[in-house]
Amino acid sequence: MNESVGLRFRRLHRPQVITDELPEHRHKGSGTYSGKVFQVTLLSLGGFLLLPLIFIILILESPIQPDLFSLKEPPVMKGCWEPNLKLREAQRLYEDQILGPESIANIGDVLYSGTADGKIVKLIGRRIHTVTRLGRPPCGSKEEESSCGRPLGIRVGPNGTLFVADAYLGLFEVNPTTGEAVRLVSGGQVVAGRKLSFINDVAVTQDGKKLYFTDSSSRWQRRDYMHLIMEATADGRVLEFDTESRELTVVMENLRFPNGIHLLPDEESVLVAETTMARIRRVHVAGLNKGGMDTFMDNLPGFPDNIRPSSSGGYWVAMSAVRPNPGFSMLDFLSQRPWIKKLIFKLFSQEVLMKFVPRYSLVAELHDGGVCTRSFHDPNGEVAAYVSEAHEHDGSLFLGSFRSPYVAKLDLRDL
Q: How far apart are CA 211 and CA 204, in angstroms?
């Protein structure tokens, strides 16, 4: 047998492997019926899910029209800003008995605050007493907030009365003994062509003749504060009310979310927390510089809320959200990307967005010249969350909150 014959013989008798698979040419370019059904179902499901999303993106109008602005790179959190856990040493008071004690004032050892259900309350020992209610029930929902009222900033006047800034209803003078409430400024009224939509904090002169207060926005109300933060429009103002002449005037305008306000000892200027810009402005309300403004402290590592005096001659500033460095600040990132903000508010409600805001409480003591002398932190807000104010009294800091169901007390003598 020659070589070529042997080769043909071996090819003819090569063993074959028998399997269940069909030859390639029989199934190439075709599929089983169940496979086709699966593909159609998957495509239909994808279309079912994508079509509403495309509709939302292209058709629905965003409720906000954000401004394009930029923030400086956040300061490195070291030195005075070095993270710590000191706020976790605070003690919770009146837990689950009080909701949203935004601001705190004291007459003697009695503390006063406004709550999310529209009440002005006094805190004596372990008990809570209602002084008065500024609005009318029912309370509890976002829709009811404007009629229920939402007391925010609260101060003690020279005659022992309370001056209260209600976000919707206006400025009030309240007798803490009788509960009588006199409205000084009505919320919602038009002043210099703009509506008072979000009255926030108030400061009073030593003689009680003048009140200075912030109106955070002429467009957004307190219940839509996330819209205001994200839109970042410069429609906030500082106003002056003369208690004798009843004259109401605009002192400063075009601020981005003016929030807490504090009258300086010379009573010629006020400090104003410009929350969206992460800074504190000094607005001159009297004297030679009246009508002017400069920056008291720029580029804070968080977004400032209320400002209150410290016993050392400085100022306590509360921040419920920070701009971590090192780290990532979502609000800094979004400040130059208005289109993303628009999309976010097409897809999510304010309540859902709040769940994505990191809870990091920060309280700092600042002095003239924008110097930070000490700061207290609670990463993740485990003990003191959503802090809005730090009120110092008798060696302790009483921490208010715009959202939490308690007042937190931090003993300063051990820090």
A: 5
